[in-house]
Specification:
The protein is mainly alpha-helical and 201 residues long. It contains 10 helices and 2 strands, in the order H-H-H-H-H-H-H-E-H-E-H-H.
């Protein structure tokens, strides 16, 4: 990282500026700052007002992300947490999604997919991914029996999946992952449905 980002350390913007950028960044990325990757953090840096933004050219985004997380620890901004209202909405959406899937049965799955998930190759990949995730659900961190879910990109690349095309999920979270992949939440909760998981209240 130091080879890629070796600019001089810029002066940290005022906390009120950083807090505004953090809240806007959560909305832009659709996830809390703990889950931002380098590309996400670079996109958030672009939200900085001038002249601060120009000071961050070539600056290590990991340090910037640490500054963002520090705002939460210092209670400048609240923690990211699900609201009760959103949790209830998600539970309803998932119930509706599962009812529709029960009506469809396996008709929504391609024959190639059905055949592939019965193969020894898939069983091997599935086990390897669970091991990479330390046998923890990547959505809720539960240690219950896991299943391996294909993202939309993984579904399009059956047999040549990369690790980032897969998600280890528990049985409780698998329908949520399926609903996210299908765009169910956006169709039934609006385009910002995924973001409303994060509440500043």
């Amino acid at each position: 990282m130091s080879v890629l980002f070796n600019g001089a350390s810029p002066e940290k913007p005022p906390k009120e500026v950083m807090a505004e950028v953090l809240l806007d960044g959560r909305k832009l990325i659709g996830r809390g700052e703990d889950d931002w990757n380098t590309a996400d953090t670079c996109r958030v840096i672009e939200l900085l007002p001038e002249p601060y933004k120009s000071e961050f050219t070539g600056f290590d985004p990991v340090i910037f992300k640490n500054w963002m997380q520090r705002l939460r620890k210092d209670k400048v901004v609240p923690k990211v947490k699900p609201t009760k209202n959103f949790v209830e909405k998600v539970e309803k959406w998932v119930r509706d999604f599962e009812k529709q899937r029960e009506r469809l049965g396996d008709d929504h799955l391609s024959e190639d997919y059905k055949s592939y998930i019965q193969s020894d190759e898939w069983r091997r990949k599935s086990r390897e991914h669970k091991e990479r995730c330390n046998w923890k659900c990547q959505l809720c961190n539960a240690s219950t029996p896991l299943e391996t879910h294909h993202t939309a990109e993984g579904y399009r690349n059956l047999g040549i999946e990369e690790p980032w095309h897969l998600i280890a999920v528990c049985k409780r979270c698998h329908p949520i992952a399926d609903a996210l992949r299908s765009g169910w939440f956006e169709k039934h909760g609006g385009e910002n449905a995924s973001y409303t998981l994060f509440d500043e209240g």
